[in-house]
Amino acid sequence: MSSPALQPILESFDQVAPFSTEFGTPDSEAVPIILENVTQQELKYKLLMAKGFVQGALRDHSQGNSSRYNELIGELLLKPNLPNAPSTVQLYVWMETLADCVSQLGLSCYELVVAVLRVDWSVRSVKFVNAYIRFMKNVVSAHTFYVVPILDVIAEGFRYRPQLPPYNTTTRSVAYARYHDALQDILTLVPIAACSLYVAIQRHMPFRQRSTADQVAYTKNILDVMDYVPTLRRQIIPLLVDHLIKIDGHIQIELDDVEEDVEFDTYNMNFDDDYQSVNSDSESDNSDDDISNDGSEVDSDFEDKEDADKHQTKHELKSMVRRLDSLMQIVFTHFSQSIRDDKRQQHQSFADANTNTSPSAGPSATSFQTEMYHILLDSFDRTVLRTLQSRYTQFLLFYICSLDTSYADGFAAHLFKHITDPLRPNVTRIAASSYIASYVARAKFMKPETIQRIVGNLSEWCISLLDKYEAETPLTRTGSNNKTTPSTEKHEVFYASIQAIMYIFCFRWRDLALEEQEDDYEDDLVMEGISDHHQNTTNATATSATTSINGKWCPGLRHVSRILTSRLHPLKVCSKPVVDQFLKVARQTSFMYLYTHVETLKGLSLSGVHVDVVSQHGARNLFYTLQTFFPFDPYNLEGSKKYIDDIYFEWIPLDDQEESDDDSEEDGSDSEDDEVDDMSAGAAAMSISPSPNHFL
C-alpha cells in the first residue's frame, strides 16, 4: 500500500484512457504497449505531478525529513511481479523527472540512485530505454562517483538471463546492444571510467560452474567491449585465458577418473533462444546451471552410489566440455571477425592516403592480430606455460601464429629462449621443450626452412650441454660392462631437448630432407636472435649431411647420432613411445639405425629413469612427469575445431612399401618392432599426452 503522499501521483498514472494494463486493452491484440500510446498532454500532466513530488522529497530529505524520499525508493524497488509494481509508463515518468534533478542527487542521495540502477530497463520500450540512458548520462556528468555503480550494473547486464519478464518487448541480443550503447555514452562522457570498467567486468565473470549460455553470453559481450575500448584488450584477454585455463584444467582432472567414452555436444550460440541444460529432459527445464546439484535424479537410476557418482561425473564432464568448446568458438570467431575488420579498415586507410595528403591518413601502427599475438604470448608465459593440465587453451596462440610467418617463427624462438635460459626453473624449461616439440610437429603453417632452423638450434644446444658434461665428468665404470651411470635429474633439460628433436623428426622428417640445391646453406641454421650458442663443436664422425630416402638431410641433424649414442643415454631416458616411434621412422627413412645400440642399453640402470619418486631434496623427477606432455595433440572440440583443422598437421604414416620392412632385421630390432606394433598406430601412437584416448 502506497503512502498518502505518493498516492495522488500513482493515481494520475492510472488515468490513461487507451490502456488499463501494460500489455494492452481487452480490445487489442496482446502486443506490448509503448509510451507513444500516451498522449503528450497526459505525459505532461504526469511529469508535472512527479516533478513536484520529487523536488519536495529531495528538499525534505536534505532537511532531515526522509519520509517521501524513502517512499520513492520503495516504489522503485518494488519487484516487477507484484500487483502494485510500477508500470513502464510510471517508471518512465520517474526516469525523466530524476534525470532533470541530477544536480540534487549528491552523495546523500546515493540510496535513491542505486534504487534507480536496480530497475530492470534493458528489455522495456525504446522510449523508456532512452530515458533511462539519459538519466545515467546526466548523473555521471554531474557526479563522477556514480560511475562505479553504473558500470557495475552494465557489466552485470552482460550476463545471460534464463527467462525474460512478462513486460519484455525485445530480444536478449537487443538488450545486450542497449547495454553497449549506454556504456559507450558513459565512456565518452567520462573516459577515465575505463579503469573502473575492467574491475566491474572481472567481478561479474561467471564461475566455471555456471551454464554454457551464461559463460558464452558474457564472454561475447566483453569481447565486444574491446572493439570500442581497445585499451582493455591487455586486461580482458588475459582474464579470458585464465578463465579458460580453469575450465580446461578441471576437465583434464575429471577425465582421469572416467573410464568410458563420453559423448559431447555443442551449444547453438543463439542468445535469443531460451537456454536448455545438457541435463534437461524436457523443454520446460530452463535451469541456469548445466549441472544438477542435488543428484536425486541420478541416484534413482542406479543401484549403488559408485555408479551414481560415475554417471554424475559424466554429466558434469559433458557440461564442462560443452562450455569450453563454446568459449573457444566464441573467442576464435571474435578474433577472425576482428582481424577481417581491421584489415578492411587498413585497406581503406591506404585508399584514403592516396587522395588525402594529411599525415594522419594511413594504416594503424599496430594491427589487431599483432596486438593479440603479443597479449597471448604474455598470457602464455604468465599462465599457460605453467599449467601442465591445459589441453586446448594454448590453441588460441596456435591460431594467431598461423596468421603471419613472423608470429610462427617468433613463438618458436620464444620457446627456445625459455629452454636455454639457465635462470628459469627446470619445470618451465622442460615444459617449453614439450611445447616446441608439439608446436613444430603440428603447425602446418611452419615452413621447412624454419623447421630446419629449429631442429638445428636444438641440436646445437644439446651438443653444447653434452660437451660440457663430457669435459666435466670423467668416464666412470660400473663392473665390467663399461656402462656409465649419469644422474638423469641433473640433465633433465638436455633429455627434454633431444626428445623434442626426435618428436619433431617423427612428424616432419619430410621437411628435414633437403633438395639437391639446398645442400650448402649451413649459415641458415641459426635462428635470428639466438645465434650466440655453441657452434664450433668437433665431431669426427659427423658429416654435414647424411643420405635420406629423398636425398640428403639438413645440416641441423648432423649431431643427432652423437647425441643419441652419448654417455647420457637419452634413448634410455626419454619417453618410450617417442623413442620407439623415432627408431622406426629413422630406420625406414634411412636416417639412422639404432636398434643395435638400444640392445646394449637393456642392462643399464639409471637413477630417476621412469620412476615417479620424490628425491632427497623433495623434488619430483620433472622430466619423467612431463616427458609425455605434448600440448598440441589433436584438437577434438567439435564446435571450435573448424578454426584449427586447416592449420593443423596430422600424422602421416610412411607409405605401405616403407611400412613393410624386410623380416631380416637383427634379433634386437624384432623385439623393438613388436613393441611399436603394440602401440596405437599412426596419429594415436604420437598423441601420447597422459589423458584418456576417448577425449584426446
Automatic annotation (TrEMBL):
Pfam families membership: RRN3
A GO cellular component annotation in the UniProt record: nucleus
PANTHER family: RNA POLYMERASE I-SPECIFIC TRANSCRIPTION INITIATION FACTOR RRN3-RELATED, TRANSCRIPTION INITIATION FACTOR IA RRN3
Official protein name in the record: RNA polymerase I-specific transcription initiation factor RRN3
Domain of life: Eukaryota
Stretches with biased composition (Polar residues): 347-364
GO biological process terms on file: transcription initiation at RNA polymerase I promoter
Similarity remark: Belongs to the RRN3 family.
Entry-linked InterPro entries: RNA_pol_I_trans_ini_fac_RRN3
One Gene Ontology MF term: RNA polymerase I core binding
Residues covered by region (Disordered): 273-314, 343-364, 657-696
Species in which this protein is naturally found: Absidia glauca (Pin mould)
Bias (Acidic residues): 282-306, 657-678
Lineage summary: Eukaryota, Fungi, Fungi incertae sedis, Mucoromycota, Mucoromycotina
